[in-house]
UniProtKB/TrEMBL annotation:
InterPro entries: Nase/OxRdtase_comp1, Nase_comp1_CS, NifE, NifE-like. This is Nitrogenase iron-molybdenum cofactor biosynthesis protein NifE. GO terms for biological process: protein-containing complex assembly. PROSITE patterns: NITROGENASE_1_1, NITROGENASE_1_2. The gene is nifE. Pfam families: Oxidored_nitro (PF00148). Keywords: Nitrogen fixation. It comes from Ruminiclostridium herbifermentans. Belongs to the NifD/NifK/NifE/NifN family. Residues 45-436 form the Nitrogenase/oxidoreductase component domain. GO terms for molecular function: nitrogenase activity. Pathway: Cofactor biosynthesis; Fe-Mo cofactor biosynthesis. This protein may play a role in the biosynthesis of the prosthetic group of nitrogenase (FeMo cofactor).
Length: 451
């Protein structure tokens, strides 16, 4: 069993409501631990976590040191957009086979790096070590250092054997790789502006956020890692403030940058009207002038008013509907609950792959007493609780989609594969329309009558 349910709520469900839930402050949840090897979990591996964070760097070469299977993780299943290079849409692998596993894969890796540098002269290469490399013990760091010394190209080792922890550990490995990249540039002069951490430019969301910041007069120094490239990443140490959107993947990097480069950070979210407005005002208050703060207040108020009529029109379509949420990180789950609240939809099941204790405490404070909260669940558990709570729609990613369809309920893709923006005020329109179309499609009634 991968899932952990808030202790008191578990009792509540099992005992049919005879036991009372405690207040959110007193609730404890077991989370942020490794999945049990061999169990089926909705979580991805360490390598996947690292690749999520680094893949959007548009002019980097991503070489997967391992068997070819791991390299099936490519741009095609993520969807970060670029305003420059599209090198990152390729995936390279050393394609280790039996012989390499017996005699070691270092020579093959060195040859792969050599080939990429000779043919493409890149500025930046990431080498991901996957499971089998963790087992045979290739000295990937040494191969990378040697290649850097020989060619002057940044060749950065990302230690990410799938079994070495959980997806969050992969985030940490990616952050360490980014630190290795920017640390040599940490003494540059400060400039006015912010870095955006933890937005991956899915369906162009980074461009939407940059436009909002432009409207309120806040410059963006570097984006980590949506639509990033080598030249913009190395400017990151010059920023005044880090904005952390995907807290699960980027808080570690933000803390390191605070310690080593003196850049403070604030957590933000651009999902839903409430979070988008609050975040923009907080950013202006953190580094802006009185004029920036005033602009932020005016901009957010105008955009909120524009959406009021739109949301009112849809709310009646959602009366009595219940939602289940299962997403990667806590920050997204929190924003989604708020967004569903804005739409008048009750969240009856909510879970994450990598949420932290503090995320679950916020989640518990936002949902009703009967809501089931899950950490690192598996499909059978998710199905059981969605059925028990009568969810009408599941918001999740590629792995959750078949589960919803199998149950004959609506689905909304809020993962990295999505093809339309869900962030900011623009995203509120897309999200609301998608929820409405999916929830109120006549197909669900038809599916049910066939059972
Ligand atoms: S790193 Fe390991 S768990 Fe992850 S995709 Fe490769 S083989 Fe599978």
């Amino acid at each position: 069993m991968g899932a952990t349910i808030l202790d008191e709520r578990k009792a509540f469900i099992i005992n049919g409501g005879r036991e009372k839930s405690s207040s959110s402050a007193a609730i404890g949840i077991k989370c942020d631990s490794d999945s049990l090897s061999g169990t089926v979990s909705q979580r991805a591996c360490v390598y996947c976590g690292a690749r999520v964070v680094l893949n959007p760097i548009t002019d980097a070469f991503h070489i997967v040191h391992g068997p070819i299977g791991c390299a099936s993780y490519t741009w095609d299943i993520r969807g970060s957009l670029t305003s420059g290079s599209d090198l990152y849409r390729n995936s390279f692998s050393t394609d280790l086979s039996d012989k390499d596993i017996v005699f070691g894969g270092e020579k093959k890796l060195a040859a792969a790096i050599e080939e990429v540098i000779e043919k493409h002269n890149p500025k930046l290469i990431f080498i991901y070590s996957t499971c089998i490399v963790g087992v045979i013990g290739d000295d990937v760091d040494a191969v990378c250092k040697q290649a850097e010394k020989k060619h002057g190209t940044r060749v950065i080792s990302v230690k990410s054997p799938g079994f070495s922890g959980n997806k969050s550990y992969g985030y940490k490995m990616a952050c360490n790789a980014l630190l290795q990249l920017i640390e040599p540039h940490k003494n540059q002069a400060k400039v006015r502006g912010v870095n955006i951490l933890g937005d991956f430019n899915l369906a162009g969301e980074m461009w939407i956020l940059k436009n909002y910041l432009k409207q309120i007069g806040i410059p963006v120094v570097s984006t980590i890692t949506g639509d990033a490239c080598y030249e913009t990443l190395i400017k990151a140490p010059a920023a005044q403030l880090n904005l952390v959107q995907c807290a699960g993947s980027m808080t570690y990097l933000a803390k390191k940058m605070e310690e080593e480069m003196g850049i403070p950070f604030i957590k933000v979210s651009f999902f839903g009207v409430e979070d988008t407005s609050a975040s923009l005002i907080r950013i202006a208050e953190a580094i802006g002038t009185e004029e920036n703060i005033e602009k932020a207040k005016q901009f957010t108020s105008t955009e909120t008013n524009k959406l009021k009529g739109f949301l009112d029109k849809y709310r009646k379509n959602f009366e009595g509907k219940k939602a289940a949420i299962y997403v990667g990180g806590g920050f997204k789950a929190i924003s989604l609950i708020r967004q569903f609240n804005e739409l008048g939809i009750e969240t009856v099941v909510v879970g994450t792959q990598t949420g932290k204790k503090e995320d679950y405490e916020i989640i518990a404070s936002l949902v009703g007493e009967n809501t089931v909260i899950l950490d690192d669940t598996n499909p059978a558990e998710l199905e059981t609780f969605m059925k028990a709570k009568g969810a009408n729609i599941l918001v999740g990613g590629v792995k959750e989609r078949p589960l919803a369809y199998k149950l004959g309920i609506a689905f909304c893709d809020h993962n990295h594969e999505r093809k339309h923006a869900l962030a900011g005020y623009d995203g509120v329109i897309n999200f609301t329309k998608e929820i409405n179309l999916s929830l109120n499609s006549p197909v669900w009634e038809y599916v049910k009558t066939q059972k």
